[in-house]
Amino acid sequence: MTIQRDSFTRPLIAAAMVVASTFAAVAQKAPVPTRVRGTIENADGDMLQVKSRSGEEVKLHIAPDARVVGVTRISLADIKVGSFVGATTVPGPDGGNNAVEVHVFPENMRGTGEGSRPYDLKPNSSMTNATVSESVVGNDGHTLLVKYKDGEKKVFVSDMTPVVTFVPGDKSELKAGAQVIAFMKQLPDGSFETDRLSVGRDGLTPPM
What we know:
Keywords: Signal
Oligomer: single chain
Shape: elongated
Protein name: DUF5666 domain-containing protein
Organism: Bradyrhizobium manausense
Number of domains: 2
Largest sheet: 5 strands, mixed, barrel
Order of helices and strands: HEEEEEEEEEEEE
Radius of gyration: 23 Å
Structural class: mainly beta
Signal peptide: 1-27
């Protein structure tokens, strides 16, 4: 009976090992990125070829209903109490939150992505979309207290931090040389599609 039991259980153990290794391979598979930042190298109809900032070549199909917004520079002084902003921050040496960039949303985009979450711009960076409730001017920048529905955060914005806002754009701006951030998804055939793109104006590289 022992021999029969072994001959029965060994195939089950082998099968279980195969299933486990398959799940491990799936778990270790790199996630598909949700955005690409880079330069448009070629625009042909509804297809874009983008060279990412890290050097990869990415081909994107532009969705028929794709939304394009322009990104343009503004000054630190344009951030007011009551402004709805997005701030990419990294931990400072003093434990505070230092802004890598700040984008001020126009009024019709107020509430977009409200909250604070990890972000992929830099190591240990986070993105906080919130309303400015206080702004304290210092010798080398502003300290903002921003509030969102689940909390608040103090953010230091230096005089050298890029500050931008969004303006209406259109697909005619999607041409070779333009600096873009394209939000993308992978289609069932493995290709990529974008339905939201931010384009830098006047040679600007969108900093977010």
